[in-house]
């Protein structure tokens, strides 16, 4: 008996598949290919027909070895793709450690430009946006990339309007995602544009991811970067702030705890987290509050106290200044606690 996906819709008369070419190269990040491919694959399964046809293409047609050591099967070489008369809809340009080795490869740049003229959309995933920029295609356009590539991107391609805190950007036919799993966010947005919100939501549920992730990638980059602090004392301080957000973390108290001056502490925080000490504390409290609001039915005033804001008004100001939304509205929009959902009608 044929397997039927629980969310599968009644198949429509098959329409021509949207053809997606995926650039492959050695040391490509596996997730940059697998994430978008899985979104398209899940869409095909739920729709009941192949709405998307995927092909991996490499310079010489050889199978690329990913950063994991696993090999991905290749469908075409640059030469066969150029010679083909077939229409293509999208090209996916992934990133990974191998980007640096081909960043100045004229053959790769020429192929990306060639495929840009033959497709309706260019999806640059993670550091793949550097390859698209190197081909001269992002000049004057908005783009993003992995947060760790921020300095490199802005130094090499200053003519690009880098928006490094964005999960993804769209500027005409050019779409870029931030680091690694953000490629899934971008592909879900493309799926929603192609087939509507319901299918995109069904695919997001199947993959157990958010359809629209809230906030920018700085919410991930700063705390993670703090884990690799420049010295052990600072690393302990960063961890303590995140573990005890309700403590009175004044700059002087933080400096005293690690035996340094406030000025030296400020320089260390900026170096390690790209945030001032006060901003880092505020970001930690905001992240903790968001987690409570998303996953529990805890009252707003209790969330404020647990997250270290002290009172609901202080937390409200922080949410409005940084997220443009009140804590109550945030909980209504993004909360997943079933008891909270049941009580919303009485709020």
Automatic annotation (TrEMBL):
PROSITE patterns: HTH_ARAC_FAMILY_2. Keywords: Transcription, Transcription regulation. This is HTH-type transcriptional regulator CdhR. One of its GO terms (molecular function) is sequence-specific DNA binding. Residues 235-333 form the HTH araC/xylS-type domain. It comes from Ascidiaceihabitans donghaensis. Pfam families: DJ-1_PfpI, HTH_18. Gene3D superfamilies: 3.40.50.880, Homeodomain-like. InterPro entries: Class_I_gatase-like, DJ-1/PfpI, Homeodomain-like_sf, HTH_AraC, INH-QAR.
């Amino acid at each position: 008996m044929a397997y039927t996906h629980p969310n599968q819709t009644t198949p429509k008369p098959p329409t021509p598949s949207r053809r997606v070419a995926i650039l492959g190269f050695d040391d490509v990040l596996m997730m940059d290919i697998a994430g978008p491919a899985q979104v398209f694959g899940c869409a095909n399964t739920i729709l009941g027909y192949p709405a998307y046809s995927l092909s991996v293409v490499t310079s010489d047609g050889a199978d690329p070895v990913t950063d994991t050591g696993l090999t991905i099967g290749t469908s075409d070489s640059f030469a066969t793709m150029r010679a083909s008369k077939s229409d293509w809809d999208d090209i996916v340009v992934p990133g990974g450690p191998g980007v640096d080795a081909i960043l100045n490869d004229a053959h790769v740049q020429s192929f990306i430009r060639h495929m840009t003229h033959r497709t309706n959309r260019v999806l640059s995933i993670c550091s793949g946006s550097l390859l698209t920029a190197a081909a001269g295609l992002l000049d004057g356009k908005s783009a993003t990339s992995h947060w760790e590539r921020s300095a490199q991107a802005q130094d090499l391609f200053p003519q690009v309007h880098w928006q490094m805190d964005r999960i993804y950007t769209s500027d005409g036919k050019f779409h870029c995602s931030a680091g690694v799993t953000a490629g899934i966010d971008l592909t879900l947005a493309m799926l929603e544009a192609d087939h509507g919100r319901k299918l995109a939501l069904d695919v997001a549920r199947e993959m157990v991811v958010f359809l629209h992730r809230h906030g920018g990638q700085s919410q991930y980059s700063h705390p993670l970067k703090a884990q690799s602090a420049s010295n052990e004392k600072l690393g302990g301080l960063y961890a303590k702030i995140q573990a005890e957000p309700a403590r009175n973390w004044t700059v002087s108290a933080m400096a005293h705890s690690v035996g340094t001056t406030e000025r030296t502490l400020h320089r260390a925080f900026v170096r390690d987290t790209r945030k001032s000490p006060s901003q880092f504390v505020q970001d930690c409290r905001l992240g903790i509050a968001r987690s409570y609001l998303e996953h529990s039915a805890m009252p707003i005033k209790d969330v404020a106290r647990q997250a270290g804001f002290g009172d609901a008004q202080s937390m409200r100001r922080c949410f409005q200044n940084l997220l443009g939304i009140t804590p109550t509205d945030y909980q209504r929009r993004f909360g997943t606690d079933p008891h909270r959902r049941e009580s919303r009608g009485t709020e």
